[in-house]
Design a protein that fits this description.
single chain; 491 residues; alpha/beta; Rossmann fold; 2 domains; five-stranded parallel sheet; three-stranded antiparallel sheet; 20 helices; 38% helix; elongated
């Protein structure tokens, strides 16, 4: 699942630059034939390469998390069957990442007629001009090589998308140069034919106007295109893949029935099915500017799952995987900010920048825009997220530290004493307050930090225990006007 780095959604990327082909590849049609090259359609190519990876036990979909037993088998069956497919799922389920990963199943290099706009195969030209060129040049026809990264096209469907964008239109400049209106050379091809012999993806297909969706009917069934009134038949060779939110949520449009009927496979995606997969996705995708201990990541993973399951959140909109990823990045940034403000930076910027569970409070305000609440919850968004975050922290505390003797921590606040922490309390200052705590070594072991923690790691463990004891009603807690948190005895 995921973000492709990218997208766990439909994010546009800059145009890739094709790498240079190896020098030993055939440079002419004659050399290509002599090398024993045979023409295969894109779907045959995908099928053959997928089968080879299955036989070898090689990875088939790199970077896709949580779909091994559910979505990926369906995708593999669709590819083996040669089916175009549509992926249905809520936002942030890695649909675009999965689609883009299909490119790795193409041959690394494929031959093309040099200069062909439609990436035509030298053994299978499709335009009249290319057929004439092959007949004239014969075995001396120059052959170019196209890297698989250049064989992928993508369009984010928007209401203003036109048939010309997708299929093509008459080029007035070519008409002005003296060509007649009936000359096929006057056509400027759109994105779909320009991805001939590749994979073309339409993201958020229901957002495409219904009259524009009609233009894709021939592409999916007859495998050709029609441009205005031209009698033009181009047998396109491509795999068409689309993504869409379920229609019960996407009220902006729908996939027209004839188009749905032409997709060979409709595959439902989903969010991570368990906590470990949620954690694996965060670890893979989050770009962390500071250290975030495992127990803090677990709090954020549980938090994301709690928000997703909350009755106060609109279930039709979903809670994107980007929510947990952004939460981890925000918490890391809070730790780095503390290190900068307290002067703890060294030549390695994150040396003492270690996130603590208290840093997670910042995500309730910065990420609320990623969640669509039910209409009756207006004005209570931060309150609801704060409650769910505390619940996630308490669950992680019980899961990680259940059964440990934590009396050494409760003894810290006996006789009216308090331990102060917060966003701008340094790790050294927090540890100075608690001193040598009985049971801390076992806590560090349970949290996977080890017996030689850094100052920041030890402080993160101490703060986690204090917050857990507060949430289990064994300590009291006050937040000062200055934003500092004081843990003390219960009144």
């Amino acid at each position: 699942m995921g973000r492709v780095r990218a997208s766990v959604g439909g994010v546009s990327e800059s145009s890739p630059v094709s790498p240079l082909p190896p020098a030993d590849l055939p440079a002419t049609l004659g050399a290509l034939r002599a090398a024993g090259h045979r023409y295969r359609t894109v779907k045959q190519e995908l099928r053959d390469n997928l089968r080879a990876r299955m036989r070898d036990g090689a990875p088939r979909f790199v970077g896709i998390v949580g779909y091994d037993d559910t979505v990926l088998p369906e995708v593999e069956r669709a590819l083996l069957a040669g089916h175009d497919m549509v992926l249905l799922g809520e936002r942030g389920q890695g649909k675009t990442r999965l689609i883009r990963s299909l490119v790795t199943l193409l041959d690394e290099w494929t031959p093309v007629i040099a200069g062909s706009v439609l990436n035509e195969h030298p053994l299978h030209p499709v335009t009249p001009a290319s057929r004439a060129l092959v007949a004239e040049a014969g075995d001396d026809l120059p052959v170019g090589w196209l890297h698989r990264s250049m064989r992928y096209g993508e369009k984010l469907a928007t209401p203003d998308t036109s048939v010309g964008d997708l299929i093509g239109d008459v080029d007035p400049i070519r008409l002005a140069q003296g060509r007649t209106l009936g000359d096929p050379e006057t056509i400027h091809f759109g994105l779909v034919p320009r991805t001939n012999r590749g994979i073309f993806a339409v993201n958020e297909l229901p957002d495409l106007a219904e009259r524009i969706q009609v233009a894709l009917l021939n592409v999916l069934e007859e495998r050709d295109i029609q441009v205005r009134g031209y009698q033009l038949r181009l047998p396109l060779d491509l795999l068409l893949v689309a993504s869409a939110n379920p229609e019960d949520y996407t009220n902006r449009g729908r996939i027209i029935t004839p188009l749905k009927d032409r997709f060979g496979a409709e595959i439902r995606t989903h969010y991570p099915t368990d906590l470990e997969l949620e954690l694996a996705l965060i670890r893979q995708e989050a770009d962390l500017v500071a250290e975030v201990p495992e127990h803090v990541l677990e709090v954020l993973a549980r938090f994301a799952r709690a928000v997703r399951d909350s009755p106060s959140v609109d279930p039709r909109s979903g809670v994107s995987a980007r929510f947990a990823i952004a939460a981890a990045e925000t918490v890391a940034a809070a730790a780095l900010r503390r290190a900068c403000l307290l002067g703890a930076e060294t030549d390695l910027p994150s040396a003492e920048a270690v996130a603590r569970v208290g840093d997670a409070v910042s995500v309730t305000s910065t990420l609320r825009g990623k969640v669509e609440f039910e209409s009756g919850e207006e004005g209570r968004e931060i309150e609801l997220l704060g409650h769910l975050l505390r619940t996630a922290t308490a669950e992680t505390f019980r899961a990680r530290l259940a059964g440990l003797d934590l009396s050494g921590f409760t003894a810290l606040v006996e006789e009216g004493q308090a331990v102060e922490t917060g966003e701008l309390v340094s790790a050294a200052d927090l540890l100075r307050q608690v001193g040598t705590v009985p049971g801390l070594a076992k806590v560090l072991d349970r949290l996977g930090i080890g017996d030689a923690p850094s100052t920041g790691q030890a402080a993160a463990a101490v703060e986690f225990v204090l917050e857990g004891l507060y949430l289990s009603r064994r300590l009291g807690k006050d937040v000062t006007d200055a934003g500092r948190t004081r843990y003390g005895g219960r009144d």
